[in-house]
Amino acid sequence: MIAIRRSPARNAAFALSFALAMTSAPALAQTSETMRFTASILGVTAGRTTLAVNRDGAAYAVTGQTASAGLGGLFSSFKVTSRVRGTERNGTFRPDRYEAQAEGERRGRGAEIVYRAGVPEVVKMEAEARPGAPVLDPASQAGKVDPLTMTYALLRDTDRDSACTLQLDVFDGHRATRVTLGQPRPQGDGLVCQGVYRRVDGYPPEDLAERREFPFTITYAALPDGRLRPVELVLDSLYGTARLTRDQ
Q1: How confident is the model at residue 2 (pLDDT cuts 50, 70, 90)?
Q2: Which of 31, 54, 168, 177 is most buried, judged by most C-beta within 10 A?
Q3: Residue 106 gets which letter from DSSP?
């Protein structure tokens, strides 16, 4: 789902996928919310992402939609819709089912993964692994979450004490990655956290030689109830600064 070895225009998809292809305070009551974000690269609008979240106790269900927009849509027109449902207990996410459908330039990259006792089973993976990439056995990826769960965990509101304490291992059906978030730094009434997106396995050797780690920051703004809301994610991509800004 994340692609970065392409032209700068198409690399806009990296920021968008990171938001799909992007804190651990469990909700104890039934709640729903919609989060909207704008993605840009090198200061140019590339697309928009929406996350619709429903919580019912420990259960969560998220629908994410990312579509190209602005100048990014002129060079790489696509829309990706993904869904996940699972549970979160004591800050640990356990997805039950993840699926994604893609249209436009990303057509043919659909996926479906089900989880049995935390072990992913790839039901459908339309895109083939890249040439030279090692093939990962899903049975070896136990305990890892899907890309949409990762995005939700990164971009949701959080208690101040829980901010900047995230580590998630992710498996998208082909590749394994790790996302960490820490090093809180006060900024006004909010915080800035330092993160790293790291390629772990399932990548061609040339990709790992080119770059393994992509640092990013998340800026949190204080809410009236004292909780914190991520309002901006800034990623150091291969082609410059990619930015995801919360609109609502």
Answers
A1: very low
A2: 177
A3: T
Rounded distance between C-alpha atoms, residue 246 and residue 240, angstroms: 20
Distance CA 114, CA 91 (A): 21
Q: Is 93 exposed, middle or buried (0-12, 13-18, 19+ CB in 10 A)?
A: buried
The token pair that represents 60 in the structure block: 């969560």
- Separation between Cα atoms, residue 41 and residue 119, nearest integer Å: 35
| pLDDT at site 204 | 95
Q: For strand 240-246 and strand 176-187, is the pairing parallel, antiparallel, or unpaired?
A: unpaired
From CA 152, how far away is CA 183, in angstroms rounded? Answer: 20
> Which residues lie below 8 Å from residue 25, measured CB to CB, with a gap of 6+?
91, 157, 158, 159, 162, 227
Q: Tell me the one-letter amino acid at 218.
A: I
Q: Tell me the average pLDDT across 183-188.
A: 96
Please report, for the chain, the start and end positions of each structural domain, with discontinuous segments joined by +. 12-246
- Tens of pLDDT, residues 104-138: 766 557 899 999 999 999 999 988 888 999 999 99
Element (H, E) at 15: helix 12-18
Question: 99 pairs with which residues across the strands?
Answer: 83, 112
pLDDT band at 69 (very low <50, low <70, confident <90, very high): confident
For 103-112, the pLDDT digits (tens) are: 876 655 789 9
Query: Can you tell me the distance from the alpha carbon of 134 to that of 150, in angstroms, rounded to the nearest whole number?
Result: 23
Which residue type occupies 85? R
Look-up: residue for tokens 């928009």?
48
